[in-house]
Amino acid sequence: MLLRRVIDHVKHQNWTAVALDFVIVVVGVFIGIQVSNWNAARGFAERERILIRELREEVVQNAAMAHAVGEGLTVGEDAARRVLALIEQKETSCTDDCWPIIVDLMHASQWQRILVVWTTYDELRREGLPRDRRIIGAVETYKNISHRAAVALETPPHYRALIRSLMPIAWQDAYWDACFVQSDGMEEYRQPCAPPPGDLDIDPERVAQILAHPELATTLREWTSIARVVGNTQTSGQQEAASEILAAIDRREGMTP
User: Fold this and answer.
1) Where are the beta strands (DSSP E) in the chain?
2) What are the sequence ranges of the domains in the chain?
């Protein structure tokens, strides 16, 4: 209808009306484009808000997993130091109660790879998000800390294979039954750990032989040093980095001043 009207105005050489129709068309197209852009920007912003909230949950989950790994390494490190003290003091006799030594030997052998999931963050980055550079900087700092810890734990320690090859399987079974818990993908090593119910035959001489193995102290010292550094990183450094990410997200969301 507008086109018919413009043709009619041209036939009658009503140039003022033609100009007015042209302005109406241009303004209409401009408004349509602006509304379309506004809707697109609004949808983009809403998607960013949704993904950043999902990122928050991702960070919380990663931090919880890191803390669990760090706690496990700390338990193992403490156990390793007790075993090393026995070896260095040549107090390898456990006539009265050998169970705590079995627990410490097994606790010290615990090792986990660090598995960090950044599915949401990777999706955000593919779309050029988040627009808040503070969030990006905080996540990249966390990822760098996590990467260094993951590299340190890339290979299982030699001590782990050594002690599990030396210890009778019945003792290991008792340890797994009494001292190890796994829930929601996270491992927990009970300390102190009471022995399982029933009679467990632990030969003190066999324990002394294990402690006297020529490679035991050397491999345990090596692993203890790694467990200490990485454990501290997981329970402190990574938690602080995670807190920075959450604070940046909360500031963006207006949850805190």
Assistant:
1) 180-183, 186-189
2) 2-253
